[in-house]
Amino acid sequence: MENPTTNHNDNQPFFSIKCDLASSGNLCFDGSNFPADRIDRGLLACNPYDSLCYEENDFVKYTRWTCHRFHIPKSEIGNIATLSITAADCGRDPLGGGHFGYVYIDGICESCGGGSYGSASISEASYDLIVSCQGDSISIKGNYTLPTINGGYTIFDDFTVPGFNIYGKSINTTNKTFSFRIVKSDFQSPNPSCRDVIAYLKFKNANNDFLPDVPTNAIEICLDDFVIPEVDIIVGGCHRNNPNDFNYSDDYYYVDFTIQDADNLHWTLERQLDDPPSGESGRSFLNQNGYGNGLHILGPFYIQEGPWTLILNYNHCADTFYITPPDYCSGCPVFAKTKITNINCVAGNTWTFDLLVAGNPPTGSKFRIIGENFDRDFGFQYTNLPGGAITQSCITLRLQYYINGMPDCIVRFTICPPKPCTNNPNCNFEAYIERINCLNNGNYSVNFITKGGGFPCFRALGNTTDVSGPFVNPLGPFNEDVTITLLACDVPFSCACGTGTNCYKIYYVDRPDDCPRDLEGRLRYSNSESQDNELIIVPNPVIADEFLLRSNLKVTDFEIYNSTGILIKASRFEGAELRMKFNNAQGVYYIKYKDSVGQIKSVKFIKL
């Protein structure tokens, strides 16, 4: 705009842009108050026929490319939008030919970034839209570029989000980002359940002169976006590794973990033992690469390890679920509620443990630790029982039941010592069994989760087994029970440290006699799961490529998962039965459904 001075009595050159469907975005620049760059007369080549150019010391105010946004409401979809764009010369001379004003227009309906008045955008990416842990707010992130016109408009002063209550406003001038939180109540009645969110940024200079507000793009947020993962936990019953052996230490169980409403969400699972051995945190990862929805079968876990907390981590949230193992099931039921706790190293590298045999046995019931000649009582906590010196081996604890003085059944436990606590400075090494892998011909291997320890090595000992070397998962194959010692080592691919270190962890691993392991259990005892006939599969096992689902529910919503927890199919039906085609491969499958009281239930079937 040429010579837009203040003495032109409201007849300045000007520019305006309007949209008939979004009048709130209309914009008009009058020449005198137009924030812009400037070319003075000394740099301006005057037209030789324009005497005013010389007489008035002409200058021109201008901007480089800049961007203006109109946000047209969704309700106007289907209507025609009209843009009205006006650029005018100075109106002081009634015959025209006064000081000029003009504009270049381009890029209608293109992206809007990097303009000379600054620019800004807010992200629609799922990782930038973070739902709060309670599901009552969403954090939104944005980025911006500063204005480039003269005048020092480089201060990002503030921003607004019209129509919303916003909290947690933050501006990072180093990274050129900003963020804020919107709340769920702004999407509940009487407000619409889906609304466009737009931020308006305010840039100023040191004199507190402001540019016109710079709007971001619009992103649509709906009430359904305020969702947090829904989790269903089913703790399975006890599995007997060997039905001919009263060894409680190899009784195990699985946990079904079903996560829903986790679309496009990355998550992890951790396990925190209630009562880890001394010197250990008891915390380890079960899944570090979780994503989205699905059924995940966790385990196996040993009942002897006791209760623990399952921790679901996502975004900045951590949900916890307390897991109580089932009772032991390897015979002699009076010992099924036995607790072995507080495995503790004491000075001199000896160790102790506590023993509680809980339950309500018949009158006259006592028990003995084999090797002792006196009775002990049910329901009493025996503390600091001696485990002996900490060596690279475990002990066997045998308990015998006595009723009215007469000996009865015997069970046994294998208890491994904690890490040595004397002469093991900076021993931050921990190890946990991750899984036992069934192999061919009765062989198996073991995977461990390790923390710290540098470059661990291992030694495995059995009746015929004596192998050692650098630790690499899986260890094996083995074909018998083995004691595995994992030793911390500072030297990679060397076990020279293994002979003298006091930083090690010991596990006794029973050979899995029930391979291949059925996730529902070949021998399964459960006192916590009710059996019902609200949904059954006919036939089961499934022999052909179809089967019947028979239901006592009015409407049956169900999902089918394979044995690795991958969703195969989700559907629903009304009435008593549904005939289903099922051309999937042979194997074990699970159908999850909601029963008549809204609880998630699981039914296993086998495809032959």
Describe the structure.
With 608 residues, the chain is mainly β. Among the domains are: 1-110, no CATH class; 119-225, Immunoglobulin-like; 230-323, Immunoglobulin-like (Sandwich); 530-607, Immunoglobulin-like (Sandwich), CATH 2.60.40. Helices cover 1% and strands 45% of the residues. Strands 6, 7, 8, 10 and 11 form a five-stranded antiparallel β-sheet that branches. A four-stranded antiparallel β-sheet has the order 20-19-22-23, with no helix packed on it. A hairpin with a 7-residue loop joins β38 (535-538) and β39. The longest helix is centred in the first third of the chain and has 5 residues, at 51-55.
Task: List the main descriptive attributes of the protein structure presented here.
single chain, four-stranded antiparallel β-sheet, Immunoglobulin-like, 44 strands, 608 residues, mainly beta, 1% helix
